[in-house]
Amino acid sequence: MQTVDVPITATVKIASKATSVQGGTIWTVPGTKPMLPEYLEVRYDNDVSSEPQREKVTWDRVAEDAYAKDGSFKVKGKLQGGAEATITVDVCSVTSVAVPERINTASGVFPELPWNVSVATSDGKTHNAQVQWDYVRPSVYTGEPGQVTTVSGTLFASGLNGYADGTNTGLTVQTKIVIQGVEKAIDNGETAVTTKAGTAPAMPSKMAVEMSDGSVSTAAIDWDPIAPEKYERPGTFYATGHVVGFDAAAVMALLDDDGQKVGVDENGNVTAKVTVADKKAKKVALQPEAVVVNTTVGSMLELPDAVSVYFSDGSARDTRGSLGGIEIEKWTDTDGLDITKPLAKKGTYKLVGKLKDVDNVNAIVYVNVSEAPRTITKLEAKSFSVATGTSKQKLYAQMPKQVVATYSDGSTDLLDIDVWDLSNVTDKLLSETGTVEITGTVKLNGAKVTCNVTVVDQDARTPDHVEPIDVIEIADNAKVSDLMDHEGRQDQERDAR
């Protein structure tokens, strides 16, 4: 019998091993289920790419008790490829949110509301959060100087990937929008405009302005119509307009090479020099409009990584477009601010950034740093008594609607209660004398506060009259010790009787 060798090919798959799995810490407030990330980054030992892979993760179930009160816990999960993951969840009440109490703006200009903010919490840590602001009606930021309107937003606790997988805390953040008159306009080069023959010039829609309190905002520019024949052929012409909301003596306009005033005069009138280049000329970037950032002392500064830039040929790189704006490569002037550390002092600062592949203009950012918001240091609910046999429904009706908050600056305020938790209060507890601790949630920040309710015997005797107190006469410049001695003598006389 003849033996035949038959070749067999086998494919052996070598299991790859995860060398690193994305982890970290997220946070939430008591009673709010944390939003765990749907995907995590993972690297395998056989990866040829320098970039990590993103894999879907299935998390273990999280019990409600885990996030019911302040504390910390870990959650385990498994990635699609089999690797294991762990994430830490901090559960903590919010004591302050780094949102300025007031944000100034010029009439007609949408206020620069902070969206990425720092949050101080009951565990002594500082966490990142985002604010999703409610719709701001034009009437809020349009009107006479002095108009004040409160706007609100919802606070999201940052996830591992920021806002994308953040937890909706359900907490409300507020600030006041204040319309102020423009006292000084700041020309950072926006009034030098270049266009190509036949292309309508891209005139700046707004410019930086100084407000009455020294902070910087932006104000709209209302340009006069520009006739098409002015930019039909190469040359120069002057465009005029007015800074909206201008109400004070301001900036001295500058003389250009032809003796023409350009910039903003003392009445808020704007004159821009427009250079019309040949159609074949290389396009040049126009000075980007200034960006304004409002933040507070103690916060990490969140600066833009790109700005919108318009070009002389009519094209643009807009931060809101699919291509995005032009990247800011580095900050060449930070006006004395250490942008790598929490902000140390209030004031207004001008930052200059170098744009990638653009040499003739820079990014300009004004940072308004206001005082850090006051922090809640103590919450107190007024204690009270009920008779034995009181129903839970009647007890809830008597629970305080507000609690007293004490702040870091020594001030106090009344804060509304969202809900009192009576789930652990039983009829048995209310049928016996003693003290019942009931936990409530503060509406403003989700913080927990305890109210002590004393259950007293409903048959306890009550006084049938109140004995009057003798009139106490206090002499001028009397001391507290004199008053105490007087009370002591009265007590002795009553005892003798």
Which key features would you list for this structure?
497 residues, mainly beta, Immunoglobulin-like, 6-stranded mixed beta sheet, 3 helices, 44% strand
Task: Give your account of this protein's structure.
The protein has 497 residues and is mainly beta. Among the domains are: 18-91; 292-308 and 321-371, no CATH class; 376-456, Immunoglobulin-like. 6% of the residues lie in helices and 44% in strands. It contains three helices and 33 strands. It has helices spanning 392-398, 427-431, 480-496; strands at 18-21, 24-28, 39-44, 53-59, 71-79, 84-91, 94-97, 102-105, 116-121, 126-133, 148-159, 162-179, 182-186, 192-196, 206-211, 216-223, 235-243, 254-255, 261-264, 269-277, 291-296, 306-307, 309-310, 316-317, 326-333, 347-355, 362-370, 376-380, 384-387, 402-407, 412-421, 434-442, 448-456. Strands 13, 14, 15, 16, 17, 18, 19 and 20 form an eight-stranded mixed sheet that branches. It has a six-stranded mixed sheet with strand order 1-3-4-5-6-2, with no helix packed on it. Strands 7-9-10-11-12-8 form a six-stranded mixed sheet, with no helix packed on it. It is flat. The protein starts with 17 loop residues before the first strand and ends with a helix. The relative contact order is 0.10.
CATH class of the domain at 376-456 equals Mainly Beta
DSSP strand (E) fraction? 35-45%
- According to DSSP, the number of beta strands is 33
Shape: flat
Number of helices: 3
